[in-house]
Design brief:
This protein has a 5-stranded mixed beta sheet with strand order 9-11-10-8-12, with helices on both faces. A 4-stranded antiparallel beta sheet has the order 4-5-6-7, covered by helices on one side. A 3-stranded antiparallel beta sheet has the order 1-2-3, with no helix packed on it. The chain is built from 4 helices and 12 strands; from the N terminus they run ββββααββββαβββαβ. A hairpin with a 2-residue loop joins strand 6 and strand 7. It is of the alpha+beta class. It has helices at about 45-65, 70-90, 120-125, 170-180; strands at about 10-15, 20-25, 30-35, 35-40, 90-95, 100, 105-110, 110-115, 135-140, 145-150, 160-165, 185. It folds into 3 domains: about 1-35, no CATH class; about 45-90; about 95-185, no CATH class. The two termini are about 25 Å apart.
Length: about 220
């Protein structure tokens, strides 16, 4: 929470019904319930590759300067690898009462028309040739499942958000519970799917909004 300097607020956290975390900020503030939270950590195989590279660095230096002195560059390599992997995987996806939070990006539920759990084929299409250049894409190369949020905001040209996740069903259910007017749909294939979405071109979800402002860039 950002402190404006005008009112000092204190964050209190308590458990809400159903085990969800409820945040209260300041006196008389409305509770903000966190319906969902997920970090997109890198898989274990990436750590194994990083460990192999660190050992390779140690071995390369050990041949030249000896095994003891080689520990220093190996430690530096380990710190760099850990920092990169943790930084890349720490992206947080969260759902509260009013919005979807992905890293520093925010999507209010008022702008969401529908939420869909993508099949593997649909997700692959929207990561590739069917992707809209105006869309907000949250991608991780090790995640194949995703949720699609189709937008209907006349002030925003962004047609949809593509959000990669390990738990698409849970994320869509949390969005359904938290967002007024957000309907979750998860058919095996959306109606009219022929390599695309109903009402749109092949592989392209329906387009909404005619403004010029983007809601956010692709999450790295």
């Amino acid at each position: 929470m950002r402190d404006t300097g005008l009112v000092s607020s204190r964050l209190r956290v308590r458990r809400g019904s159903g085990g969800q975390r409820t945040h209260l900020t300041g006196p008389g503030a409305a509770p903000q319930r966190r319906w969902y939270a997920e970090r997109l950590w890198v898989p274990a195989t990436w750590w194994l590759v990083a460990a192999f590279l660190v050992v390779s660095v140690w071995f390369a230096f050990a041949v030249v300067v000896g095994s003891t002195w080689a520990l220093l560059p190996a430690a530096v390599a380990a710190a760099v690898a850990a920092g990169l992997l943790l930084g890349y995987g720490r992206l947080l996806i969260g759902v509260d009462n009013a919005q979807l939070v992905v890293g520093r990006a925010r999507l209010p539920f008022a702008a969401v028309e529908s939420v869909e759990i993508l099949s593997r084929r649909q997700a692959e299409a929207l990561r590739g040739p069917a992707a809209d250049a105006r869309a907000h894409l949250v991608l991780r190369p090790y995640l194949r499942a995703a949720v699609l949020l189709v937008l209907d905001d006349r002030r925003d040209a962004t047609p949809y958000w593509y959000v990669a996740t390990r738990r698409p069903g849970e994320l869509a259910a949390a969005l359904e519970r938290a967002g007024a007017g957000v309907a979750r749909r998860s058919p095996p294939e959306p109606p009219g799917w022929r390599g695309g979405f109903a009402g749109g071109d092949a592989g392209v979800p329906p387009q909404h909004g005619d403004g010029a402002r983007r809601s956010g860039a692709t999450e790295a």
